[in-house]
Amino acid sequence: MSIQRVLLVGIGDFATGFQSGRPRAVHEALRDLVPTSLLELGAASRHSFRLARVLNSLGQTHRLPTRERGLLRRYTDALNRAIDRTQPDLVLSTTSLVFDSPVNAPSLGWPDAPLNLMLDSTAYPHLGALTPAGRARFEDAERRAIQNQDVAAFPTRRGARFARELSPTANARTYAFGQNADHGMLHEVQLRRRNTTAQPEIDLLFVGVDWLRKGGAIALRAVELLRGRGIPARLVVVGACPVAIARHPHVRYLGHLYSRNPADRAVIVDEMARATALIFPTRADNFGAVAAEAALAGLPVLTSPHAGVAEYVESHGFGLVLPEPVHDAAAIAADYADAVETLLGSRAETEAMSARGIAAAASTLNYRISLERMLDDVADRKS
Length: 383
Description:
Elements: E1 6-11, H1 21-30, E2 36-41, H2 46-52, E3 55-57, E4 60-63, H3 69-86, E5 90-93, E6 107-109, H4 115-119, H5 125-128, H6 132-147, E7 151-154, H7 157-166, E8 172-174, H8 183-194, E9 202-208, H9 216-228, E10 233-239, H10 243-246, E11 251-255, H11 262-274, E12 277-280, H12 289-297, E13 301-303, H13 310-316, E14 319-321, H14 329-345, H15 347-363, H16 367-382
Parallel strand pairs: 1-2, 1-5, 5-6, 6-7, 7-8, 9-10, 9-12, 10-11, 12-13, 13-14
Antiparallel strand pairs: 3-4
Helix pairs in contact: 8-11, 8-12, 9-14, 12-15
């Protein structure tokens, strides 16, 4: 039995991408495959903002998601009303928050990770500060959500494994995420990179709104080490960082850039075309769409084992995943500096990484490919 209509659920605005570009990107891929109805759950309210989004100030995480039962029930009620109205063959939700109780249609959640994966990390201090009772409440809410889905889908094998640990009977599957940024822009970067000549400075691109969690201090220290070795490295920061970092002599701070703004888009293309690599030494990232975007652009990725996307960087070979045998920030930064030197010392391998990234974006890190697999799997299950 084929899937004839999908109800796609997300928190925020599908058209603008607020508050995450992923629901919009999923919608743009899905609507070409099957008739799709949308359910946009309010992101503007204080409550849903607290539930669904990490809040940042001066590059540091200040608040993380909670689970408020009343709001979760309202989300589920809104979903069931939308199901009655649209009669879908499948509910596909980019958030697990709507599954606090069973829904009236076949369902598949596709968030970036189960909450217990985040609870397992020390990089989220507000989660780490939970009391045992608070942690249990969070885990119970996530367990209910997983159990109330016909398929609990995640972009990484690690995410699916953590879901099974929380709920051993979960039908947990893995479907890779793709790029949230505009594909046309990333293809433009591809073309520009093929024709870009050597630059006087070695630019390392850093993207993120949470300076500490994304490993900004490690990235900057790697740049300083490279300069100490006589290599004219510079950290190009897109997103947010502390004011003192933005003024650092070896940082080019670009602030928040939006690809739908023509002036910002031109800057993004220029910087990605000029960069030697994306440096992504994150301390915790459920996926890391920026690495998938770098892959499509042909930009090599240097990342940590703490990035969900690291399993794809490693398996497809479009960058380096730097092991961290010891928790020593200075040693980790030195490893990143060494990795940059490795890239600079082998143009052939750097070009091969670029080609492998583009291939990975076409075959695997691709929303359309994942959605085609997903719809086929769900149809087979219904047959």
